[in-house]
Structure formats: structure tokens, C-alpha cells
Amino acid sequence: MNKEIIIFLGPQGSGKSTQAEIISKLKKYEYIVESDLLKNFAKQKTKEAKMVKEMMTKGEMIPFEISCQVLFDKIKLVKSKKIIVDGFPRLINQTHVLDYFIYKEKHKLKGIIYIDLPKKECIKRMLKRKRADDTLEIINTRLKIYFEKTKKVLDHYELKGKLIKINGNQTIEKVTKEIIAKTKKIV
Q: pLDDT tens digits, residue range 39-68?
């Protein structure tokens, strides 16, 4: 079954998951969160699962073979024709594998919605969340990796005319309105 896929990207703390969830409910898209898939994978009793769990604890990037496989398996299982993917791809090699998967399976990538937020604001928001893994050191590691590695992903999709930048430095309601206004043709 050909599926329409929209991807939400943004640094940690940008509100991308909040927005992805809002839009998926409003527009009746199946909502897939890459980090949730990896957390479930990490609970398995395998060597790879143990490694993934350790890497996630340190805020490191998961090997792309694993992150791609858990996502593609999930997309194949989903019955809905409309899917929102939250938080993938983050690395340029994941981008190439995703592009090939979409081409091979005859799916359609409708667009990449990028919630743009300055690093300082990301840190401020993440420290307010009071999560165990949100120490300043881990936050800085995650954001450093994100801004260094994901820039190439954004450039890739901008060249393809698929990138839709959204100002994440505003209220949740205003971000939602901007997404709806800028994605009328694809969502």
C-alpha cells in the first residue's frame, strides 16, 4: 500500500513532538515516534538492544542500521495510508536509506516540517522538563550532535524542495497555526 509520509524534525526542546502529535490528530495521520521505537527495541534481551540502551542513556546517536530497521518495520505494519514520523532521519546516511526505502516501497514523502529553535532556547526548555536524562551535560551533547549532524539532512531536503521551516520560538498555538498555513497543499 502506497503511504504518504510527513516527517517532523527539530532539536530537542523545540516542541516538534508536541506539534507532530497535534497535527497527526487534527489531520488523522498515524503517528510514529522514532525514539519510542528505539526505547522499545532497547528493552529486548539482545546484545544490540543493550548497546542501544547504553547509547540512549549517554545521549549518543544510534547506529543507522538499527534506527532505519525499526522505523521501516513499523511503517510496513501501519494500516493507515497517512503517516507522520517524529524525529527521523537525523543523519545524512539515514536520509539516503530513507529515500531509497520510500522509492522502493512506492511511498510518497510529502514534506519535512522543521521546527527551528535557537540552541539557548532549547536548553532553557529542556531544563524545565525535569527529566532524569536532562542534565546540562547530556543536553549539550545531544544538541551539539543534533546541530552538527542534522544540518546536512536539512540541506538535503531543502535541495529537494521538501523542507518547510517553522519558527519554534512562539506559543504552541502559533506554531500549530504556522504549520497548518505552510502545509495546506501537502497535509
A: 999 999 999 999 999 998 887 888 888 999
